[in-house]
Amino acid sequence: MKTRVVIAGYGMAGARLAEEIRRRDPAGERVAIVAIGDEPHPPYNRVLLSNVLAGAMSADSVRLQEEGWAAAHGVEVRRGREVVSIDRAGRAVALDDGTRVGYDVLVLATGARAWVPPVEGLTGDDGGLAPGVATFRTLDDCAAIAAGARGGVRVAVLGGGLLGLEAARGLAARGNTVTVVHPRRHLMERQLDDGAGQVLAQVLRGLGVRVLLNSRAARYLPGDGLKLDDGRLVEADLLVVAAGVRPQTAQASAAGLAVDGGVLVDDDLRTSDPLIHAIGDCARHPGTVPGLVQPAWEQAAALAALLTGTRSPYRGTKVVTRLKASGVDLAALGDVHAAPDDPRAEVLWLSEPARGRYAKLVVRDERVAGAIALGVPDAAATITQYYDRGLPVPPDRLALLLGRAMPYGEGGAPGGGDAAALPGTSVVCRCNAVSKDRLVAAWRSGARDLTALASATRATTGCGTCADTVCGIARWLARADKEEAAGVAHAPS
After folding, report:
1. I want to staple 15 with a disulfide (CB 3.0 to 4.6 A). Which of 43, 47, 86, 315 is the partner?
2. CB of 470 closer than 8 Å to CB of 462
3. In degrees rounded to 5, what are phi and psi of residue 425?
């Protein structure tokens, strides 16, 4: 008998789960899938929304699935519908149109919603956003911001975190005058130390984005701008709120599931109810940093394996944060806040603000424990490989910090490494969670150049920083094919 799996939420995590299940159960012989998504659009890549906002990509180009994918793969999708309650005893969910959908297994992939801080004037009497205010989370948000930003109007962005800076850079690329208002001492304080945050602010200012630090919003005045608590007025015709997100856990809480900053899950992504799982931004696993896409996609793969009969526990994700903004090359990973006098770590750093470069390396027990790489892409690629693979770092730490130490051989992979020596499980494209093994499989299936590999796997279609690595793997595969053909041709008859 088939297991009926209902996926509540059909965004990045829910869509990837459906794909991973069908990859393991192509004909739907073991698992029937019903997916419920509250947005009217096919699932899309939120990672690329800043490119859509900047006008560099269209809404259609960030789709994760073609329009007919679900029907072709036996996945029932109900778009524009939301799960409003969970009947655990009856094994069913109620939708906002009054219908009920039964399940054998329920997967919560409800994601997160933009958080609107309690600043006077941001919301109207009905609780909705005031005129001239927009959040930055969805494709519809992008459309609203783009419409409000026409004609090069003045824009204020409330929040100097990852999303806020991507929105600010995207709007500046459209020709808008943009001011970022951030309440902390430096930008992206969760992912960067003070030195990197200050250099990043300088880089953004050089790209035409005004940055106000240690600045708190007091009131929004439609048509005038954002009043700060020190009396200053940031003139703006449009205010974009990017002050963070909150997990969508209301339905889980109402159903009595254990929730604490997200729906609590174990290594099988199982909640406190054994028939209910949770993945993505709405879930909280002890080995996961929330708010990034790679953990969601790794969780989807682990859960798909479990649901199709092969247990593959999820142990957590080594997250690398990348700022996807034109003209900025930034990666941060692990413990970025270690101080130079930390007795348990070696901490090296280089700062060159005039050139927009900052690099920091934290080593513990001969392994990379943390790093920041701003304006040094070679270092970012090399250090990430050491971090992902848990390799011992070379004795010359400075060479590693500068991107001159290679984690494997000579050739055409990251930092000049050898694609042949790169483990198959290594994640090449973090934006789309594409491993070397997936690229090899796509090549063997006929994707014989960069364009075809990108189409088959989506590698390189995110921030683009993996393009050199994908090209290196393609060159290695082409060489291997030639050598194999030559070997066959010269084999004795």
Report:
1. 43
2. no
3. -80, -5
Tokens representing residue 141 in the block:
């948000």
Q: At what angle do helices 467-489 and 450-457 cross, to 10 degrees?
A: 110
Q: What is the rounded CA–CA span in Å between residue 46 and residue 51?
A: 10
Q: What are phi and psi of 470, to 5 degrees?
A: -65, -40
Whether the Cβ atoms of residue 33 and residue 74 lie closer than 8 Å to each other: yes
Distance CA 40, CA 281 (A): 20
Looking at residue 317, its amino acid is T
SS3 435: strand
Compute mean pLDDT per 10 residues along the chain, 493 residues long, and list them. Answer: 96 96 96 97 90 88 89 96 98 98 98 95 92 95 94 95 94 94 96 97 96 97 95 97 95 98 97 98 90 89 96 90 87 94 94 96 96 93 88 92 67 50 76 82 90 85 74 88 70 39
Per-residue pLDDT at 263: 98
Which region, left, alpha or beta, applies to residue 256 given φ > 0 means left and ψ of -120 to 50 means alpha? Answer: left
The crossing angle, in degrees rounded to 10, of helices 194-206 and 162-173 is: 10
Query: Does residue 115 contact residue 16 with C-beta atoms inside 8 Å?
Result: no
Q: Which two tokens stand for residue 58?
A: 């269209």
Phi, psi angles (nearest 5°) of residue 130:
-70, 160
Are the C-beta atoms of residues 163 and 149 closer than 8 Å to each other? no
Q: Fill in the DSSP letter of residue 424.
A: T
Other C-beta atoms within 10 Å of 283: how many?
29
How much is the pLDDT for 455? 82
Determine the Cα–Cα distance for residues 249 and 260; give it in Å rounded to an integer.
Answer: 9
CB 157 within 8 Å of CB 166 = no
Integer CA distances (angstroms), 141 to 45, 134, 147, in order: 14, 7, 10
